[in-house]
Structure formats: structure tokens, C-alpha cells
Write a structure and sequence with these properties.
This protein has about 325 residues and is an alpha/beta fold. The chain is built from 13 helices and nine strands. Bound molecules: SN-glycerol-3-phosphate and magnesium ion (MG).
Length: about 325
């Protein structure tokens, strides 16, 4: 056989073999365009995957390590929660009390109920915000072997980050972040938590890379007043009557609803009106697939690796 003919034959055979091989599903979707947050609400790009409190499934939530794990896995941004120390520093923690995610009760036995708002920054920084993960194993990722003993050892002594540190890391990574401002109604910081957050985002030159959300919609109004250039999203738990009207009224770019109470009609209505929809906290693959099929703008999830797989499989 002539070499040219043999080459052709081999090419045909190789093609046939490839066609028979099982098609691998892509694990990661294409990167997002680098647009300012406001412009990421359109349909012209794939849905976003947001690592909830960092990659909370495999690392202690709201720590810089959890953020890094989210980045490494390819998440498009992370979500964090902002509260304050008693002496006025913005810090990253979800619960009002320190009990679940730190050793405050052991270190400060007389300070029940261990409200984060009652502790100075120095006190907060003396706490271990990582060791609890191995004890609680909140997503059974230690039991399953996904989080190794070595990885677990590295959680010991992780600190509650300040918002400044969290933003600086986000900036260093060239990443984006959804800053959720906790409702501090009734606390002294209620008067300034929004405005100081706006100030810090501006100071760090990150206004195009953050999305600020809150269940307290008055905070969102204040954010718009303090820094109109920062995109805001309205967090809701149970459905509200006129979500599009609320978003317009607030000047928000997106609705961040509890996925459990969300339906297709609401997603379509909100998206057709030009707003984003970012449901939380979606961890089961079937829920992710359904929401993506409904046309959500992104998923807020404790497992961004699974979120990315679902987006890639669309
Ligand atoms: O921002 C999405 C989600 O984090 C809202 O609820 O309680 O987890 O902060 P929560
Ligand atoms: Mg949150």
C-alpha cells in the first residue's frame, strides 16, 4: 500500500475509534467575559457560579482559605457575610454568635451569648475559626475522605478575616465578590455598617467587582446613596408580591432568592425585565440543573465544583 493511502486509512480508523469512545462531559465552562458587575446581569454569557461563604463545602466558611478553595475550583466569585467588632471593624462571619464557628465559648466562658458584635477585633482575632469544621464535619466531607487529615490540620487556627483582608485577597486574585451585609438592626453599628462598607470598597478600587446584597432592603437604599456605582442585589427568603417593582424601586441589578421558594415564572419575569436572579443555597445537582434550565443568572452554592459541572453540562 502506498504511504499516502496507508495514512488515509489510519486517519479513518482513528476517527472511527474516537467516535466510539465515550464522550467526556466537560467539567468546566468557558471563562466569563471581564465585565463590570452590573453588565453581568445580561443573558449574553453563561450563568455564574458563586462560592457560598467561600468553598464552604470543603473548608471552614467565611475564611480566606475557603475563598482560595473557591477560586482554585474555578468559581466566578464568592459570597461572604459582613458583621462588625465592638470597636468598629468590619469582619467576615455569618452567625450573630461566635459559638458555631469558633472556640469563643471555651476561651471566653463568661461572655454568653458570645455575640460577635460584643467582641473587640483583638478578641475576635484570638479565636480559632477553623478547628470546628473537623468536629462538626458539616457536609460529611471528612467522613467521605474528600477533606484529608492534612487538609484538616491546616484549618487549625484560621482567623476570622476582616472585610479589608477578604477584599484585598479578592483583588489580588483578580476575582469578584458578593458582600452580604448582615442585618445589624438594634446594634450600634446599624448606623454605619453600610457606609463603611461602601467606603472600603471604594478605597480599594473594587466598585466594579462587588455585588452588595442584604435582607435589609433599607441597607440597600443606603448603599445606593453612599455609592451609586456599586451594584446591589435584593436578598429575599419567602417570595414577595412584586419583585420587579422592588428591584426598580431599590435600583438593584438582581434578586437573590431562597431557591426553595423560587418558581420558573418568577425567574422569567425578573430576567425578562433585565435583572439577574441568583438563588441560594443550591447544592443538589438536580436543583442546580432545574434552576439553570429556568434561566437563572447564577447559582450560589456550597459546592461550586458541582455548580461548574452543571453549568458546563447545559
Ligand atoms: O447571600 C446568600 C445567602 O448567603 C443568604 O443567606 O443566611 O446564608 O447568609 P445566609
Ligand atoms: Mg450570606
Amino acid at each position: 500500500m502506498k504511504p499516502a493511502r496507508l495514512g488515509q486509512l489510519l486517519a479513518v480508523l482513528a476517527g472511527a475509534l474516537l467516535a466510539c469512545a465515550p464522550q467526556e462531559r466537560p467539567q468546566t465552562p468557558p471563562p466569563l467575559p471581564s465585565l463590570p458587575m452590573e453588565e453581568l446581569m445580561t443573558n449574553e454569557h453563561r450563568p455564574l457560579v458563586i462560592a457560598h461563604r467561600g468553598f464552604r463545602g470543603i473548608a471552614p466558611e467565611n475564611t480566606l482559605l475557603a475563598a482560595r478553595r473557591g477560586f482554585e475550583t474555578g468559581a466566578d466569585m464568592w459570597e461572604l457575610d459582613v458583621a462588625t467588632s465592638s470597636d468598629g471593624t468590619l469582619v467576615v462571619i455569618h452567625d450573630d454568635t461566635l459559638v458555631r464557628t469558633t472556640n469563643a465559648a471555651a476561651l471566653f466562658p463568661g461572655r454568653s451569648p458570645w455575640s460577635v458584635y460584643d467582641f473587640t477585633l483583638e478578641e475576635l482575632r484570638s479565636l480559632d475559626a477553623g478547628s470546628w469544621y473537623g468536629v462538626a464535619d458539616p457536609f460529611k466531607q471528612v467522613q467521605s475522605g474528600r477533606v484529608s487529615r492534612d487538609e484538616l490540620a491546616s484549618f487549625k487556627g484560621l482567623l476570622i478575616p476582616t472585610l479589608r483582608e477578604a477584599l484585598e485577597l479578592t483583588r489580588e486574585l483578580g476575582w469578584r465578590v458578593n458582600i452580604e451585609i448582615k442585618d445589624a438592626t438594634g446594634r450600634p453599628c446599624d448606623e454605619w455598617i453600610v457606609e463603611r462598607t461602601a467606603e472600603l470598597v471604594r478605597e480599594l478600587g473594587m466598585t466594579a467587582d462587588v455585588l452588595v446584597s442584604s435582607f435589609n432592603h433599607e441597607y440597600l437604599r443606603r448603599m445606593k446613596k453612599a455609592a451609586p456605582e456599586i451594584a446591589i442585589a435584593a436578598l429575599i427568603d419567602k417570595p414577595i408580591d412584586d419583585p420587579v417593582g422592588r428591584l426598580r424601586d431599590l435600583g438593584a441589578v438582581a434578586l437573590n432568592p431562597n431557591f426553595k421558594y423560587l418558581d420558573r415564572a418568577t425567574v422569567e419575569k425578573v430576567r425578562n425585565a433585565g435583572f439577574g436572579v441568583f438563588p441560594w443555597t443550591v447544592n443538589a445537582p438536580a436543583d442546580m440543573a432545574r434552576l439553570l434550565e429556568w434561566g437563572v443568572t447564577g447559582l450560589i452554592t456550597d459546592f461550586p465544583d458541582e455548580g461548574l459541572r452543571q453549568v458546563a453540562a447545559q
